[in-house]
Design brief:
It contains 4 helices and 2 strands. By secondary structure, it is mainly alpha-helical. The chain folds into 2 domains: 59 residues, no CATH class; 59 residues, Orthogonal Bundle (Arc Repressor Mutant, subunit A).
Length: 125
């Protein structure tokens, strides 16, 4: 190759590198603006809901211990002499519905029940 072509290739490669770096810089600026917008929206949601805004990355949810699940269910049933359905227990305790269902299924000896399917109600023994 002639030196003229080699210099043109080198110049074009330099321009390509410069264009890529400017694209990366531009994308980083857009990302920063988007993150700022998200932070503002989270702050607005927190203001409306009364909950603290999420800062940084979300933490992993903590697992509810079996003792906490049992204690919550027993407390809810003790407060309700007419018994509660699975859904009502879930709402009263703040536990996930599936957690309540699984606990009641695995501990049938701890509770009295009446009815079937949707009309099934749980009582303390």
């Amino acid at each position: 190759m002639t030196p003229d072509i080699q210099t043109q290739i080198a110049e074009l490669e330099a321009k390509i590198t410069q264009l890529r770096s400017s694209q990366v810089t531009e994308l980083k600026e857009k990302l920063q603006a988007a993150r700022q917008t998200v932070a503002e929206l989270e702050a607005e949601i927190a203001k409306i809901t009364g909950r603290a805004p999420v800062v940084g990355k979300l933490e992993r949810r903590k697992r509810t211990s079996s003792e906490d699940v049992k204690g919550g269910i027993l407390k809810a049933l003790a407060a309700s002499p007419q018994g509660l359905s699975q859904k009502e227990i879930s709402e009263a305790t703040g536990l996930n519905y599936n957690t309540v269902v699984l606990f009641l299924k695995n501990n049938p000896k701890d509770f009295k029940t009446t009815g079937k399917l949707r009309s099934k109600r749980y009582f303390l023994k």
